[in-house]
Design goal:
By secondary structure, the chain is mainly α. 60% of the residues lie in helices and 0% in strands.
Length: 96
């Protein structure tokens, strides 16, 4: 369910570039994960129209060990669940 507040927040957020996406993965110690997922992330629409804040909040909330690798399908599952929970405003706020 999209609330008006969420829609306004979404409109005011700048869309993440490929370079920013790579930098966020690196910042959280997931360079190898990015290398594994990069092509599928860029070809899919999974993170299209998303801000860097979403990915930063995701990595702040999930406890992936540095160097963790996973398939695109696993990553897509986790990020979709996270986005759904964030849209429903059931996640605690994380200060990045």
């Amino acid at each position: 369910m999209h609330t008006l507040l969420n829609l306004v927040k979404k409109e005011n957020q700048r869309i993440m570039t490929e370079r920013e996406m790579e930098e966020i993965f690196k910042l959280y110690g997931h360079s190898q994960m990015y290398k594994t997922l990069k092509n599928k992330l860029l070809l899919s629409s999974l993170l299209d129209n998303e801000s860097g804040e979403l990915l930063e909040s995701f990595f702040s909330s999930y406890d992936f060990r540095q160097g963790t690798t996973m398939s695109y399908e696993e990553f897509a599952f986790h990020i979709r669940v996270f986005k759904l929970l964030e849209e429903q405003e059931v996640l605690p706020e994380v200060n990045c």
